[in-house]
Amino acid sequence: MTNVSDLKTTPLHAIHKALGGKLVPFAGWHMPIQFKGVMEEHKCVRDGVGIFDVSHMGEIEISGPDAKKLIQHLVTNDIEPMQNNQALYTLMCLETGGVVDDLLVHRFSDDHYFLCVNASNSDKDFQWILKNAGDFNAVIKNTSQETAQLAVQGKHAEALMQKLCDAPLSEIEYYHFRKGKIHNFECILARTGYTGEDGFEIYIDAKHAESTYKALIEEGKAFDLQPIGLGARDTLRMEMGYALYGNELNENCNPLEAGLGWVIKLQKDDFLGKSALKKQKDAGLSRKLVGIRLLDRGVPRPHYRVLKEGSPVGELTSGTFSPSLNIGIGLCYVSTEYAKPGTKLDVEIRKLNVPAEVVKPPFLPSRIKKS
Amino acid sequence: MEVPENLLYTQEHEWVRVDGTKAVVGITEFAQDQLGDIVFVELPEPGTLVEQENPFGVVESVKTVSDLYAPISGTVTGTNKDLEAHPEQVNSEPYGKGWIIEIEVSDEKELEKLMSADDYIAQCEKEQG
């Protein structure tokens, strides 16, 4: 049993409690899993707008003459074409090709970037970056402690935030950001998210997080804004088929099998994991991460076995009930012969084989605003 | 938190409404609140023999799976089929439309092992710390 007093808390811990949040241990943090309920919160984000405290996420700043070279060495995607104020999804891999973390790179300028990394990996990532920084002339700072992160997600996110922001938010394109003010505090406003809805992620000094959060809650009343817990954060990302580190991705996985080849730029100069990933690609994939949709009632969960005519073909890495589709959904690595959409499989739920089929994620269309 | 006086309770948060030799079983307001949104209830077939303190079914919320324990031994004489389409009734009306099974009680003496509403409230307070 985790001792609650050993857990880290975000600057919004007290307000979560005051808002009726149910707090649970998550990745070493004491975080709200739900407020009014996962289903209602999920629908609130899909139909309107919700606010998440994601201050447990880590931030690492990299600056200096070799900042770009160092990041190019660390990550699988190509940051060379990035413009200022642009964000990029990428992986950071081991020499074996296994995934250290999946993260976002944000470019302020040619010699100044910041990374947003998973909560559970932020210390590991920071050490990994330091270890591989070698002779690069760069300053690496773990700013996780002093940075809070809020996500405002849903179709009304822009209208709501505009009431508190000086910057014209409509000018910020998907996967772009800018420095601005919200509720009169300096922050970074990024059009990114983990829900499949339009919306923003706000990086702000931890000292100003509570007051900003309260202001958003207050302004949000006109938009039926609700605070959203980690429970709905998971169901929302699952419906999009987004990978979650620790579930789909880990240091032993093959990110090409995870369908993340699009962020692995093998034509770019040497980077950590390149030769292993190239070999894996040349050898061809034997497995693939697919979406699984139940055809009957039941809730698939991580580690449940997936069967083809009674024989195991894989194990779910994630599984949940989809509030939008009203059916169980999951993600699973299966041999390529079973990866074709429409393939009929079974998910074993407490000795019972529940019929399911392979689908290509997302499970429902994303509504992010691609430029 | 609603804990009706006229029901009996288990440590595992089931309630029992005894009516002659029949016992209707559900989960408590406290239990549904702890579980969160219920999306699936696995029911036994009528005719199934259940044994006191042994699992007879499963209730699943979005986040968790939880076993249901028989508060009393006997034969299942009815199940709440509405829960197949509307499992959320367990959340909205745990003591009403959210009932789960009906049991023909085989040994009334077992009822003595169940808790009164007052004892159950005390247990919930303890669990909440």
- Care to count the β-strands of chain A? 19
Strand percentage of chain A, roughly? Answer: 25-35%
What is Rg of chain A? 21 Å
Q: Please give the count of helices of chain B.
A: 4
Residues in helix, % of chain A: 10-25%
End-to-end C-alpha gap of chain A: 47 Å
* Low-pLDDT regions of chain A: none
- Rounded mean pLDDT of chain B is 96
Considering residues with a beta carbon less than 8 A from a beta carbon on another chain, report the largest interface and each chain's count. A-B, 17 and 14 residues
Tally of DSSP helical segments of chain A: 8
Question: What is the makeup of the main sheet of chain A?
Answer: 6 strands, mixed
Which runs of chain B of at least 5 residues are low in confidence (pLDDT < 50)? none
Beta fraction of the residues of chain B?
A: 25-35%
Main sheet makeup of chain B? 6 strands, antiparallel
CATH superfamily descriptor of chain B: RNA polymerase II/Efflux pump adaptor protein, barrel-sandwich hybrid domain
Structural description of this entry:
- The complex is a heterodimer of chains A (371) and B (129).
- Chain A has helices spanning 13-18, 38-47, 67-74, 122-132, 157-162, 209-220, 230-240, 274-283; strands at residues 22-26, 29-34, 50-53, 58-63, 86-93, 99-109, 112-117, 139-142, 147-153, 177-182, 185-190, 199-205, 226-228, 287-294, 305-308, 311-322, 327-335, 344-349, 352-359.
- In chain A, α2 (38-47) crosses α7.
- The mean pLDDT of chain A is 97.
- By secondary structure, chain A is an alpha+beta fold.
- In chain A, the strands form four sheets. A six-stranded mixed beta sheet of chain A has the order 10-11-12-9-3-13, with helices on both faces.
- Chain A contains eight helices and 19 strands.
- Chain A folds into three domains: 4-57 and 146-240, 2-Layer Sandwich (Gyrase A, domain 2); 58-142, Alpha-Beta Plaits (2-Layer Sandwich); 286-359, Aminomethyltransferase beta-barrel domains (Elongation Factor Tu (Ef-tu), domain 3, Beta Barrel), CATH 2.40.30.
- Helix content of chain A is 20%, strand content 34%.
- In chain A, β10 (177-182) and β11 (185-190) form a beta hairpin.
- Chain B has 129 residues and is an alpha+beta fold.
- Chain B has one domain (8-124): OB fold (Dihydrolipoamide Acetyltransferase, E2P), CATH 2.40.50.
- Helices cover 21% and strands 34% of the residues of chain B.
- Chain B has four helices and nine strands.
- Chain B has helices spanning 29-35, 82-85, 89-92, 117-128; strands spanning 8-9, 14-19, 22-27, 38-42, 49-50, 55-61, 65-69, 74-79, 101-105.
- In chain B, the strands form two sheets. Chain B has a six-stranded antiparallel beta sheet. Chain B has a three-stranded antiparallel beta sheet with strand order 4-6-7.
- Chains A and B meet through α2 of A and β4 and β6 of B.
